[in-house]
Amino acid sequence: MKASKRTKWIEIEYWDCGIDSHTHRTEAVASACIEKQEKRSPLPDKKTRYKRQVYAARRVLEGDTFTKVGKDLGISGGRVSQIFDKTMRMARHPSRLDVDTIPEGNYWELKHLRENKEFWLRQIQKMADLWGV
Ligand SMILES: [Zn+2]
């Protein structure tokens, strides 16, 4: 027998919550997902997000806790941590980073970032200028 290429169609049954990438196994989970989506507040506009990123990054680099910054922004400390991580990831991007001037050490650690805050605050300023915030 000679090998032949075939196509087999399979059917997948799932509960839809309105998000393309979601395939829920039960109606209850899909309903809970929809409920969760409805409760979620919409993402603020880009300018507001950029301002929040710059503000959060500066405050955390200055030594404030995620919780304290979150209280002032009306969001959770965990969310501030996410925003801070994203902002620092962007600040470390090679397109914005002068490789020869990076301070020695592990720049993925908060301790390192705070010890070299002048450098990282300049990086944040570069982004603030770029974004116009
Ligand atoms: Zn869903």
UniProtKB/TrEMBL annotation:
Name its species: Spongiibacter thalassae
Q: What is this protein called?
A: RNA polymerase sigma-70 region 4 domain-containing protein
